[in-house]
Design brief:
There is one protein chain. Helix 4 crosses helix 8 and helix 8 runs antiparallel to helix 9. The strands form two sheets. A five-stranded mixed sheet has the order 4-6-5-8-9, sandwiched between helices. It folds into two domains: 79 residues, Thiamin diphosphate (ThDP)-binding fold, Pyr/PP domains (Rossmann fold), CATH 3.40.50.970; 140 residues, Rossmann fold. It has 249 residues and is α/β, with parallel strands linked by helices.
Length: 249
Amino acid sequence: MHFGCLLQVVHDVDLQKLPVRFAMDRAGLVGADGPTHCGAFDVTYMACLPNMVVMAPSDEAELFNMVATAAAIDDRPSCFRYPRGNGIGIELPVGNKGTPLEVGKGRILQEGEKVALVGYGTAVQNCLAAANLLETHGLRLTVVDARFCKPLDRALLRSLAKSHKVLITVEEGSVGGFGSHVAQFLALDGLLDGTVRWRPMVLPDRYIDHGSPEDQLAEAGLTPSHIAATVFNILGQTRDALEIMSCRT
């Protein structure tokens, strides 16, 4: 989005609280489309707007639900992002039009201990894959689909921070996005003053050149193996982190 267009979003939409819906394609890494089309910054500049609802689906079924959610929001603007390429293969019922979600509510996909992976958008799938990988090493993680960057599910985040030792946010977006909003909430709520540790996993602060989605994800450090290694490192299990990265294909 050109920044002149963003000015229009601020003045003509968000300030007026108009129910305009923004469907933002090519979210995150985009493979052969390269750095000019990489959707790295949308969460950062849309979620800073006071009245905007900002959401991202973790799979194609959730995308249907978020289209329905945006259509149902009639008192403020909203946006949802979705990636270039195929879905993960979820079978959808014929005539499916999605179900509106409760705005600002995430969901727990897997219950675990000590460590919670809080994924945003397509990064949720890599969080699940990382959790499966870590389970073979005897670690059972909590995996969360945040769904919304704005408004955040504060009750869920508060509960996670109080019941886990480590929170890791994962997203295919730049610094200043979902993880930064989570950190702001945790800090102001005093949840970082205790024993819980938070780590963000975001796109690096540089442009990533053309390549396969898999290669780009590896260069960004956001593969399931990278997520698993981050968990091991924060738990002080450096040898396990090195081992899991050496086995990465």
